[in-house]
Amino acid sequence: MKFAFSRPTASDKERDELFGHYETIGYDGLQLKHAQYAPFIKDPEKFNALWGEHKGIASGLIFGGKLDNQNQQDLKDLMRFSKAIGTERILYCHGIPRDQVSQDDIKHYAKVLSELGQESKEKYGVVLSLHHHFDQPVMYREDFDIFFDNANDSVKLTIDTAHLYKSGINDIAEVITSFRSKIDNFHMKDFAAGDWKVLGQGEIDFGPIFKAISDIEFSGWMSADEESGGTILGGMKECLTHMKKGVEQFSYK
């Protein structure tokens, strides 16, 4: 199990605080928000010169869009950048409201992302992982079945606990068990009263979630996706403590 951290930053000072402390706190890497890497997409050498000595600094890059022609080209540019800075996976958030798509649309998106995922893996060695969100095409429980029944194995799945919960999917453990062969990444996030919360401070019951993660013998990345608005260092410490406690509870190695 490898632990990562992800959170937005509002300034270069906040970004530098995030980049400068994740290793000493005990994380294996970061999963970067778009604004944290976007200025360097055309200049990966500069990114590497600034932060390349930090292990796991860009273990994952979060990216999104409408999957139109321009967005697909931007995604291909990001694949090249990802290879140059040593990124393992791109987490794709499909930014189209759920009420604007049909089941046939979801099937089509699965095929398009499969082609992109295959190109990303074969040409650049970078995994493409679907990062589902509330009010995006893959939102309801049946959407996951439709999408992955029509996607090839080049598209993986990032499970986001709070977005599942906000979407009305309370049995998160079932989703983990059912899609065990697709899952390559977790975003651990809490939720209560309409807001994101620091892990352990919301209303999601993480016990069954950690048990399911242990049951499927997951050995990839588990990232705290911290968007509660608290302090960077405080959130990093609390989230890592919660994740490690949850993993150790079920004696998962």
Overall description:
Keywords: Isomerase. It comes from Aquibacillus koreensis. One of its GO terms (molecular function) is isomerase activity. This protein is α/β, with parallel strands linked by helices and 253 residues long. Helices cover 45% and strands 19% of the residues. It has 10 helices and 10 strands. It has helices spanning 12-25, 34-37, 44-51, 69-85, 103-124, 141-149, 161-166, 172-178, 207-215, 232-249, and strands at residues 2-6, 29-32, 60-65, 89-94, 127-131, 155-160, 183-188, 190-192, 195-197, 221-225. It has an 8-stranded parallel β-barrel with strand order 1-2-3-4-5-6-7-10, surrounded by 4 helices. A two-stranded antiparallel ribbon has the order 8-9. Strand 5, helix 6 and strand 6 form a beta-alpha-beta unit. The model has no long low-confidence stretch (mean pLDDT 97).
